[in-house]
Amino acid sequence: MARTVRLAAGRARALGVPTRGTTAPNRLRRMDRYLLHIGQHLLASVAEPLVVDLGYGSSPVTTVELYHRLRTLAPNVRVTGLELDPERVAAAKSAARPPGLEFKRGGFELAGLRPHFIRAANVLRQYDEASAGSAWETLRGGLAPQGLIIEGTCDEVGRTGSWITLDAAGPITLTLSIRLLSMPSPAIFAERLPKALIHHNVPGRRVHTLLAELDAAWRRAAPLAPYGPRQRWVQAVGELVAHGWPVQDTARRWRLGECTLDWAAVAA
């Protein structure tokens, strides 16, 4: 069982357990695209925004990709990749790095940093639910003012994923994101829910109801299949809206294979 994470008083001690290390180029592109979407105002309003990529794994490739994607919007952004495994940190440091990109040893204590954004992808999946909740608390306490956390999981190639956006007060939204051209049905999200929800996907719980209704709406939208999966997905998400689900954004975002809802709609 994973250790309960606690911040030692007065010290920035590396907290947590090393990630499994699995990673691949472009695995987190969907999460990065969402971060750019929700973070554009904050990134533009801060002179030197700091973003932490927590637990980047055996290779720093997704941290490097995050840096370059953010730089298109915020040329002064700084990105720090954190890992608990010192060998992974040493390997990342050994490669040439552009200005504003660095790697440090650290975990949930964030190596004493105060980031404006934290990306924690496929990190908490290995923890039990109580320890993951403690990690949330520690991460939220390390945010800069108005800072945000994106925490979630995805499959090995980044085609199916989900994540929760949090601020210092707690979770705000749940996002489901998928490559529509390869999606068999929305039921596939069940195996890629964040730790805070995956064990609550049982009859009678809100997240189970959400996935069931989205899957049913997808099946009812089958007549639109000849026009492509984007049209079919937009129709299915629009049906959720019509049934009272608090879906955010518009069809412009839905066409990307996204569906973001207020956290209260799925909170366990």
Largest pleated sheet? 8 strands, mixed
In which range does the helix fraction lie? 25-40%
Mean pLDDT: 92
β-strand percent reads 15-25%
Structural class: alpha/beta
Number of helices: 8
Give the H and E element order.
Answer: HEHEHEEHEEEHHHHE
Evaluate the radius of gyration: 18 Å
Label this structure with key terms.
268 residues; alpha/beta; Rossmann fold; 8-stranded mixed beta sheet; 8 helices; 19% strand
Brief sketch in words of this structure:
The protein is α/β, with parallel strands linked by helices and 268 residues long. It has eight helices and eight strands; from the N terminus they run H-E-H-E-H-E-E-H-E-E-E-H-H-H-H-E.
Describe what this molecule looks like in 3D:
The protein is an alpha/beta fold and 268 residues long. It has a domain at 1-158: Vaccinia Virus protein VP39 (Rossmann fold, 3-Layer(aba) Sandwich), CATH 3.40.50.150. 32% of the residues lie in helices and 19% in strands. It has helices spanning 29-45, 61-71, 86-94, 129-141, 195-198, 206-220, 229-242, 251-254, and strands at 50-54, 78-83, 101-105, 117-121, 148-154, 160-167, 170-178, 258-262. Helix 4 (129-141) links the parallel strand 4 (117-121) and strand 5. The relative contact order is 0.13.
